[in-house]
Structures are given as structure tokens and as C-alpha cells.
Design goal:
With 246 residues, the chain is an alpha/beta fold. 26% of the residues lie in helices and 24% in strands.
Length: 246
Amino acid sequence: MQTAIISDIHANRAALEAVLADIDRRGITQIINLGDCLSGPLDAAGTADLLIARNLPTVRGNHDRQLYDRPKAAMGLWEAWIIDDLSAVHINWLKSFPQTISLDDMLFCHATINDDDDMWLHEMGPQARMIPRDLKDVSERLGETDAMLIACGHTHTPAFVRLPKGPAIVNPGSVGCPAFDDTRVDPPFIHQIGAPDARYAIVEKTDDVWRAEFIAVPYDPTEMAALARAHGEDGWARALETGWLA
């Protein structure tokens, strides 16, 4: 049975619609959402309404948690942009997300099993860019799970690794945010995929071996880019239109 894995939508309703349409076209009925659903200067309420209607199993991302675990004055910019757009129904929906989901021999989390704000398969490397982690660092985050497939998001970077004598780990990439910068560090941490497409992954076990297929779905980002610019975020708009920050 195929399972579609989506992650890091970040309020990009148009990208989510394109991904869900592609999944539906393929006849895949099992979809797992790895979180970070709404934070970003786009359409948080519309994204929430669509996800609630689909009733997808969803794990808690760090940006989901940050929409309810602190007062508005202490929120990060990505949350402050859209918190007033959300209703009590939306917030209670976010609060319902578990930290992990287990299904057969699969385990789903946002970042790592025990931390929704860590990077499992990647780390900050030279020139403040994202690079793959070494085997030792990836393995240390595994813990005691006996899952044979683990899915994580958070870094917005499609990746698939197999641990020696251990599980396969897949990151589907980001549905809605193909590039970002973090100005809280010096120099700013910059990450750009280089294409504006909406990303997700399909996993399937064949002959007792887990396999992954990475999908990049073209879509029209015009509406979402206009919302970003209305928030004064030309960088977000450029990322949505091109997959690059500059």
C-alpha cells in the first residue's frame, strides 16, 4: 500500500491544493502530514480549513506548537503574521496533534522523535548552508524505536537514507516553502531548493524493503506571492515564484 507524506505547508494553500490533487489523481488514500501547517505570511485560515476537512493524521511541528504555547507578543514573526486570522477551532485543531504517529512498521514525526525543533538528516554547514548529517549524528537521534521506516520533515529538504542494520528515513521536503532565511544567526542561515514546485513523497514497501519516490508538483504561486507581498515579504514572494531567495 502506498502512503503519501506531506510536510511544512506553511499556509501555502495553493501548493497544498496542487499536492492533494496529485495524490488523489494517483489513487493514494493514505496521507500523513508531518506538521508546520500554518505559519507564514500566506493563507493560514484557508489552509487550516482544507486540512480539517480532509481529516489527515498530522503530527505536531514546532511552528504548530508556537501558535498556542506562548502569548502573541512573544511569538515569532511567522506566527505573528497570521495568529489573528485563526479561530478557536483552528487553534484547538493544532493542539490535538500528537508528537509522533506510529502505523504498522512506520513512525512519523516532524523533526526527530523526541524534539519538534531539531534537524535529523541535515545540519547547518559552512557558509550557513544546509548540509547532510554524518551517519553517527543521524543514528544518535534514532533512540529505541523498532520502526523500519521513519518520516521526518522540518528542514524543507527532500532526502532518503538507509541506516546500516536500521530503518530507512525519508524527508518529503516542503509542500509550501521552498526557500527561507533565518536572520537570528550571523551570518543568516539561508536555504533554497532552487525550484518553486510543491514537494511531497510516496513510500511503499516492496519485497519487504521500503522505497520512496519524491514528487515535485508545479502550481501557480501568483495568489500566494501576492499575499506575501501584502505582508511586506518580497523575499517570501520571490521564493514562492522561483525557489530562490536572490
